[in-house]
């Protein structure tokens, strides 16, 4: 039954409930919630006694299933953990982040803004900044830079105090985000390490490696010619 619930096979779940004695575990509702099967969640809630765990709402939030998050909040007592907002933020599900913020007390961690920044969800970053106190870590700008989200990098630079480390420029170089590198050079003081040139070359970004070598001579790699 756990497996059928995970796959959203309500008729199979009903059949097993009516004709078998093995039953299921709390994982049935957890799995159904994670995969967005509200009809299965409703059936298990009304006809079974195994319940679920906080992982059900956490995973529903992370999967973008607002209807299930609301159902669990209104009908179940297991609740969720900080991971619910953290995961919803990483997925860019602003409506879920707002719902949990307004209706639950578990809160979130700095991972929420870090993850939202990493995946380029600027509106989520803004909401967390203006409505929560957990903040972020240097990983927020670093991950945004690595993934090429220049708008997020700029916003964090203008509105947050955590800053970044050399990982920001190193990561941007690895994935060839020259626009991000330009911004970091003009607005930040952390700079980069030799890893930036090396990883830019590994990623096939010769122009980026050349730009780094020209602007950060200390990061040049001995024996590697990058002149145009």
From TrEMBL:
Q: Which residues form a coiled coil?
A: none
Top-level taxonomic group: Eukaryota
Listed Gene3D superfamilies: Ankyrin repeat-containing domain (1.25.40.20)
Q: Source species, please?
A: Phytophthora nicotianae CJ01A1
Give the protein's recorded name. Answer: Uncharacterized protein
Q: What are the transmembrane regions? A: none
What is an example of a Pfam family matching this protein? Ank_2
């Amino acid at each position: 039954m756990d497996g059928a619930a995970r796959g959203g096979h309500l008729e199979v779940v009903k059949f097993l409930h009516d004709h078998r004695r093995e039953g299921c575990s709390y994982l049935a509702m957890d799995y159904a919630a994670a995969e967005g099967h509200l009809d299965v969640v409703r059936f298990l809630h009304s006809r079974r006694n195994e319940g679920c765990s906080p992982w059900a709402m956490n995973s529903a939030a992370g999967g973008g299933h607002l209807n299930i998050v609301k159902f669990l909040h209104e009908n179940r007592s297991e609740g969720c953990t900080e991971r619910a907002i953290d995961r919803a933020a990483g997925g860019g599900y602003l409506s879920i982040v707002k719902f949990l913020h307004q209706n639950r007390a578990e809160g979130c961690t700095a991972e929420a803004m870090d993850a939202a920044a990493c995946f380029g969800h600027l509106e989520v970053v803004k909401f967390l900044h203006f409505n929560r106190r957990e903040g972020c870590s240097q990983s927020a700008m670093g991950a945004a830079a690595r993934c090429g989200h220049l708008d997020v990098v700029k916003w964090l630079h203008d509105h947050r105090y955590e800053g970044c480390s050399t990982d920001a420029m190193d990561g941007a170089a690895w994935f060839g985000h020259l626009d991000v590198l330009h911004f970091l050079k003009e607005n930040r003081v952390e700079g980069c390490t030799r890893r930036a040139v090396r990883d830019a070359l590994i990623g096939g970004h010769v122009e980026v490696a050349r730009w780094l070598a020209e602007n950060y001579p200390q990061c040049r790699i001995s024996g590697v010619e990058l002149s145009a």
